[in-house]
Amino acid sequence: MIVRWHCKIVGIVLLGLYLAAAFSGCGASREIKKPPAYEATGTASYYGRKFHGRRTASGERYDMHAMTAAHPSLAFGTVVRVTHLKNGRSVTVRINDRGPFIRGRIIDLSFAAAKTIGMLADGLARVRIAVVGP
């Protein structure tokens, strides 16, 4: 009988410790992380049908109709605004791949993103990119 009573106390203490560990910090206020400040100006290119359906560096499949882009160093999932400097049109894309691998280019846009800012005919465009979200 004493052993059973002792086991119940140990069980209650362990449960209390588990709950304390599980819920510690729940009442603390959470900071909203701001995206890192990043802005760059340079040449953008785009990629389309040839890569459609292939795996990107992030592991997802490239969809030429999605608003995505390749950047050499920004974290996967980073959201950037790309503005075509000649016509002022802009698009918001999510980084899901690495590239471009051609010197002098700062971003590779998906076909859909390139179409949105009006750079399909030229294939290249002078753009400004700015991080807008994590």
Protein topology:
Elements: H1 2-23, E1 39-47, E2 68-70, E3 79-84, E4 90-97, E5 105-110, H2 111-117, E6 124-133
Parallel strand pairs: 1-5, 2-4
Antiparallel strand pairs: 1-6, 2-5, 3-4, 3-6
How would you describe this protein?
The protein is of the alpha/beta class and 134 residues long. The chain has two helices and six strands; from the N terminus they run αβββββαβ. It has helices at residues 2-23, 111-117, and strands spanning 39-47, 68-70, 79-84, 90-97, 105-110, 124-133. It is globular and about 75 Å long. The termini are far apart. The mean pLDDT is 85.
Summarize this structure briefly.
By secondary structure, the chain is an alpha/beta fold. It has 2 helices and 6 strands. It has a single domain (39-133), classed as RlpA-like domain (Barwin-like endoglucanases, Beta Barrel), CATH 2.40.40.10.
CATH superfamily: RlpA-like domain
CATH topology label: Barwin-like endoglucanases
User: Care to count the β-strands?
Assistant: 6
* Class derived from helix and strand content: alpha/beta
Rounded radius of gyration (Å): 24 Å
* Strand arrangement in the largest pleated sheet: 1-5-2-4-3-6
Q: Could you tell me the mean pLDDT? A: 85
- In total, the number of domains comes to 1
User: What kind of oligomer do you see?
Assistant: single chain
Percent range for β-strand residues: 25-35%
Proportion of residues in helical segments: 10-25%
- How many helices? The count is 2
For the biggest sheet, the summary is: 6 strands, mixed, barrel
The general outline is globular
For the record, what CATH class applies?
Answer: Mainly Beta
CATH architecture: Beta Barrel
- Terminal CA distance reads 58 Å
Low-confidence stretches: none
Give the H and E element order: HEEEEEHE
